[in-house]
Design a protein that fits this description.
The structure holds two protein chains of two kinds. By secondary structure, chain A is mainly α. Helices cover 75% and strands 0% of the residues of chain A. The longest helix of chain A has 33 residues. At the A-B interface, helix 3, helix 4, helix 7, helix 8 and helix 9 of A face helix 2, helix 3, helix 4, helix 6 and helix 7 of B.
Chain lengths: 247, 215
């Protein structure tokens, strides 16, 4: 048991750099997925059937084909087709963004359609342009509702990042696996790795809960501090139409 | 193979292998869902016991399993229990991981049973066992079936993880063939399409079922 932790602390720089890769993949993947969620989600609510159809097709495609296969396709198959090899981290970010963007679009769609009809009507009555309507009235209300589901997806994304190990990006899992190979302490090594992910998940949840509180405060709905540490990783069964890891 | 085009010959070669692997994928999904459905119910009931000695540790373990990556759990379990068949490990780990999600579904379903039903059971002095068996569960389970189905579909899309612990399911076959013949494009494209073809109608069906049971 001691040998693993000795190795862990002796190689702290590598561990931290692995942690950095994992964090980078999570944050970049999540940011692009977030943008994509809005693009696809708003397209899904568009009055033009072609626009709606494109969004539907893209979403079903990326949700239906398994993240794992998408990642492998980008890493192994794309270079054979195009001659370009994307870096492992880039493949990971791209695959996470496309997959979770597809899941997120449902969150956006659901959040927008949950804003009461009267709000739309009031905005029209006040002669707001479609852009102003979205930006000033609908989105602020929808966003506060979407955050718990986005938290859920963010944790799922974090949980998908160990896939980077399979395409040999030097993420946290890769580094800890190397330490395990060197020390032979399987049980301790994997438990440590799990604890690391657990802490990361909790930090992300806490940040997202703070964000939700801020979004609600902007709408004049103040919430107590009690719920800040509440875990959200499976709470949104009702709010996401087809739930799940997306992996 | 010049590699810049889709080779239909290779595609024809790899398809039977993929379909064979697909059977293992399906088997793992069905058995994993079964484990998750049963274990999830047990967790949900354990979390409702009045003894905090039971409910608090159960909650802590559940929270931990749910917040950590399935891939790490799989690889860890397969390494620590290296003498057990990887498929068995895969099914158990998938089942446990998803049980932490299904238990929430059950919890919501159980909470939705009106309080008056519990009180009526108490008034009739039914044993706890009878209360669950004859009154609460029949009402709760009907409402949770669509959500359980959705988790089954998610699990299906995560079964490729099993390839990592050398279970010979579809993605394992795709990788194997791809590396041997340098035909990743054909292998992974087809594997992706098989997933799509299998999961899309299922999710449509679940949505329909959800609508019928829901409103």
């Amino acid at each position: 048991m001691n040998t693993f932790f000795t190795a862990f602390f002796d190689n702290l720089p590598q561990v931290l750099s692995g942690l950095g890769v994992t964090a980078q993949a999570t944050v970049l993947g999540a940011l692009i997925a977030f943008v994509l969620s809005f693009v696809l989600g708003l397209m899904a609510g568009h009055h033009n059937i072609v626009v709606r159809g494109v969004s539907r097709t893209v979403v079903e495609f990326f949700r239906g084909t398994s993240l794992y296969v998408q990642l492998f396709w980008l890493y192994y198959a794309l270079p054979l087709l195009t001659g370009y090899q994307l870096s492992a981290l880039f493949c990971g970010v791209l695959a996470f963004a496309l997959n979770f963007g597809a899941y997120g679009s449902e969150v956006v769609r659901g959040g927008i359609s949950a804003v009461p009809r009267a709000q739309w009507e009031a905005a029209v009555a006040l002669n707001l342009s479609p852009y102003q309507r979205m930006r000033r009235v609908i989105l602020p209300q929808a966003l506060a509702q979407m955050i718990p589901s986005f938290t859920n997806l963010l944790i799922q994304l974090l949980k998908a990042t160990p896939l980077l190990w399979l395409i040999s990006a030097a993420d946290l899992m890769t580094v800890i696996q190397q330490l395990r190979d060197r020390t032979g302490e399987s049980l301790v090594a994997y438990l440590t790795l799990l604890v690391c992910y657990f802490i990361l998940a909790y930090v992300l949840t806490l940040l997202m809960n703070l964000l939700e509180r801020a979004a609600k405060a902007r709408l004049g709905q103040h919430t107590g501090t009690g719920g800040l540490f509440r875990s959200r990783s499976a709470a949104s069964v009702e709010s996401v139409p087809v739930v799940g890891g997306g992996a | 193979m010049n590699g810049s085009t889709f080779d239909w010959g290779a595609a024809g070669d790899v398809l039977p292998l993929l379909l064979h692997g697909f059977l293992t994928t399906l088997l793992a999904t069905v058995l994993g869902t079964l484990v998750a459905a049963v274990l999830g119910l047990l967790i949900a009931i354990a979390r409702r016991t009045p003894t905090r000695l039971v409910s608090v540790p159960v909650r802590a373990v559940m929270e931990f399993v749910r917040s950590t990556p399935l891939l790490v759990q799989l690889v860890g379990a397969a390494t620590v229990f290296s003498s057990v068949d990887p498929l068995v490990i895969g099914i158990i780990v998938l089942g446990i991981h998803y049980a932490t999600y299904t238990s929430e579904v059950y919890r919501a379903g159980i909470d939705a049973v009106p309080k008056g039903q519990w009180e009526a059971c108490r008034a009739l002095s039914l044993s706890p066992r009878r209360t669950w068996q004859a009154v609460v569960l029949p009402q709760a389970v009907r409402n949770v079936l669509p959500a359980l189905g959705n988790y089954g579909i998610s699990m299906f899309k995560e079964t490729p993880f099993l390839a990592v612990i050398t279970v010979q399911e579809m993605v394992f076959e795709a990788r194997d063939y791809g590396s041997e013949h340098f035909a990743y494009t054909e292998a992974f494209t087809l594997a992706g399409l098989i997933f799509l073809v299998a999961s899309y109608p299922t999710s449509l069906l679940m949505r329909k079922l959800e609508k019928r049971l829901g409103h």
